[in-house]
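Please check the following.

. . .
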Amino acid sequence: MANIQPKRIILILGGKGGTGKTLFCRLVYYYLLNAQVNCLAFDADTENPEFAEYHSDTPNPVKLLDFLDVGEAKRLFTELEQTRPQVALLDMPGASGKQTREQIDRFGLFNIAEKLGYRVTIATVLNTAYNTINSLDTMMQFGKTRSDYLIVKSQLWNQGTLTFDRWEVSETRKRCLEWKGIEIDLPVLEASAFDALHEKSIPFFQPDKLGFGDRILVDSFLDLSQPHILKAAPYLGYPSPVSNKSKKQITPVNHDESAPN
């Protein structure tokens, strides 16, 4: 029987644009839906709302939300209080660390989460540059042990002369592991398959919209990603062990018809 994890509010950050943040967000959403987890998803990257665009014509659309706007942030917390999903997933703007921290302080996010029965996960998608490490370090100094930390090493940036050596020897990594942070990889989605998905904003659970060659590349990416999602399950609100359901048998949850947990 699956082990249902505690309720989660997941903020997915990248420190800067282009790290693979939204790709990881789409992947997490796919696996949560595939496991029938009641997940309420928001795209807070208002300048580049690709997460919402990929799911606009699905039974589980992603809601646009400007988390940095006070009124919009109020809407988020109101929906959480009223609907109590198992997971609230937010794709955050690429380089908004300072404003995000100010908004977290303004609303007391960690206290709200505790009162509503949630634990906060700060998931950071890293490239191999110092800036994403520094951004994570600042966020950890801010959140301390009030949240859990998931580190996602995008393997797109771990090719040729690019390596994660800076991260491996950093004090940030050492501290993260001491605080029981979980470290996983984000496999590479082959460029032609990525482009095929991106051209028509096709989500991962609609593979039949792809040509056969791109479909098998996407299936391979999902298969390679699965053990990493399982490793991160405690911080993603994801049931463990992994469901045996075929990827093509997914029946996404309709939030409007689901009873709150």
Observations:
- The chain has eleven helices and seven strands.
- The first helix runs from residue 21 to 34.
